[in-house]
Amino acid sequence: MPHAEGYTEFTPDEYPPFPEGDFTTVELETISLKKLLDEDATEQDRVFQTCKTRGFFYLELAGCESGETIRKGADDVARVAERFFQLPQQEKDAQRMQKGQLDGYKSVGATVTDKTGTPDTAEFMNIAKNDMILPSSAKMSRTWPPLIMQNQPLFDTYMRTAHSTGLKILSILATHLGAKPEDFLSRHRLEESSGDIIRMTRGPPRKNAEMPEIQTPSHTDFGSITLLMNWLGGLQVWSESARSAGPLEPDTPGEWVWVKPKRGHAIINLGDAAVKFTNGVLCSGRHRVVPSPGEQGKWPRYSIVYFVRPENECMMEVLEGKEIPRPEQEEGSRISAREWIVQQAKGLGTKFPEN
Ligand SMILES: O=C(O)CCC(=O)C(=O)O
Ligand SMILES: [Fe+2]
């Protein structure tokens, strides 16, 4: 789409539908947030089943207040994202992620997408939850740009709601695992320091029809649970669940299949911390982002992602639960979530600016 002053490129009402026919899509379960909040036992069982197999599902947001907050909030955050990505490159670069940091700006091309070093094409801005939920007078971990600060109330509300939605799902999973929900919840407390962020992403329009260009390379998320809002196709999951894949390449035979965005629904997926805590009972689905298919590819692609990650000081160990097998051997040296997450981020092939 052409881009001029005052022209909006995040225009979800104008996007053409996801093209049918030529594109193999994955059938994900649709789970109702309202039913989960109403303690509907069948819906809760379905969450557990799908998290053991694929680790990805649609979360229907209609019919409850938190769902509405997420639905409307994601549109508002995407509008902030659009304005952020329109800032001069120098201003964005001033926010760039430093070594070992999870928040800040990642420019186009800062990550490699394959072993030969092909650069990615998406830009991100990661905003730290712990800063946005503080009173505005409090000292923050960095000086956020005025655009972000002006929208602090929006980020605050969105993060709190997405976080509590993530915790609701984690506590349902804990119950089904025969574990104490408290053992999961006490590792993901809202106000404790953690790598929790909102990631605002922008991928450029598709350059040509066959283009294999990669916006975000193959990965599994490294936190516990991710709540993703997207409006255009581009997200793909690996057809077979891969539980122990290395970075960049899936380790099981299969193919990439498209995840069709569903209006009024979030996409929920589990990350590697959920796999670690449950000794592999839960699954973190491998995924990547390519330019949107067909006509949709003419639009730049925005997504708004909220990551619930373990608190920095929590130890990454298998939790107790009747359905969680004990590790066969004594686990190696214990590691905190803070250290573990930095290790996982390195595994993703992120090139930090100093490296
Ligand atoms: O943009 C999307 O749809 C997915 C983004 C993603 O996988 C991520 O940021 O971890
Ligand atoms: Fe992801």
TrEMBL record:
Residues 194-310 form the Fe2OG dioxygenase domain. GO terms for molecular function: metal ion binding; oxidoreductase activity. SUPFAM superfamilies: Clavaminate synthase-like (SSF51197). One of its GO terms (biological process) is small molecule biosynthetic process. Keywords: Iron, Metal-binding, Oxidoreductase. PANTHER family: 2-OXOGLUTARATE (2OG) AND FE(II)-DEPENDENT OXYGENASE SUPERFAMILY PROTEIN-RELATED (PTHR47990). Belongs to the iron/ascorbate-dependent oxidoreductase family. This is Fe2OG dioxygenase domain-containing protein. It comes from Cryoendolithus antarcticus. The lineage of its organism: Eukaryota, Fungi, Dikarya, Ascomycota, Pezizomycotina.
